Amino acid sequence: MTLDDALRTLEEAGRIRSRWLRGMSGVDINGLSLVVSNSRTEAEMAGIFGYPFTVDLSDPLTVQGLLLLAREAWGDPTLTTMRERLGWRVYCWPATPRELYEDAGSYSPAEAEAIVAALVAAAEGV
Questions:
Q1: Which of these, 17, 28, 48, 77, is most buried using a 10 Å CB contact count?
Q2: In angstroms, rounded to a whole number, what is the distance separating the alpha carbons of residues 19 and 40?
Q3: pTM of the predicted protein model
Q4: What percent of the chain clears pLDDT 70, i.e. is strictly above it?
């Protein structure tokens, strides 16, 4: 499942309010970048700009927006990322015995990838 599929699934299931939060960046198929000034649906953004946009994982503010969406999707405001010796993981703080964070946040080379894994795991559980 891709990140876009996961966000769409979570939004349709009512687990997140919107796939796009204010300040998040998107990139279209031509490499055109866009910063969302308010929450918009993908269809609205495609209609405005003529192309579908995907989440820009290279933008730090967008990565933090994805973390907020992961917290909303899991229903846990303590969800956070942590860099360990083997890579990035997503955790609940303080740690709980729930294994979903272990599965969702398996080691990733980048923080954004760990958050994406948590969002995909949340969507697969819908």
A1: 28
A2: 8
A3: 0.81
A4: 76
